Amino acid sequence: MPKMKSHTGMGKRVKVTGKGKIVAQQAGLRHNLEKKPSTQTRRLTGTVVLAKADVKRIKKLLGR
């Protein structure tokens, strides 16, 4: 049986930390920024650890 190919698009969107956690950019910072308060846009900057429910599916796409 051939090897599973990793999903290159997912590899560009998430990073795996040294302990194996999945980190990604928060959603909601792409458009309609004039309507959103500054406090909200500041809160959305940076990366967050993804939910435990998503980790299994994402690791499968990454080939881990």
Topology:
Layout: H1 8-13, E1 14-16, E2 22-25, H2 38-43, E3 47-49, H3 52-62
Antiparallel strand pairs: 1-2, 2-3
Supply the key terms.
3-stranded antiparallel sheet, Ribosomal_bL35-like, alpha+beta, Factor Xa Inhibitor, 3 helices, single chain, 16% strand, elongated, 64 residues
Provide structural commentary.
By secondary structure, the chain is α+β, with helices and mostly antiparallel strands. It has a single domain, classed as Factor Xa Inhibitor (Irregular), CATH 4.10.410.60. Helices cover 36% and strands 16% of the residues. The chain is built from three helices and three strands; from the N terminus they run αββαβα. The chain has a three-stranded antiparallel β-sheet. Strand 1 and strand 2 (22-25) form a beta hairpin. The protein is elongated. It starts with 7 loop residues before the first helix and ends with a helix. The mean pLDDT is 94. InterPro entries: Ribosomal_bL35, Ribosomal_bL35-like, Ribosomal_bL35_sf. One of its GO terms (molecular function) is structural constituent of ribosome. This is Large ribosomal subunit protein bL35. Keywords: Ribonucleoprotein, Ribosomal protein. One of its GO terms (cellular component) is cytosolic large ribosomal subunit.
Quick overview of this protein structure:
By secondary structure, the chain is of the alpha+beta class.
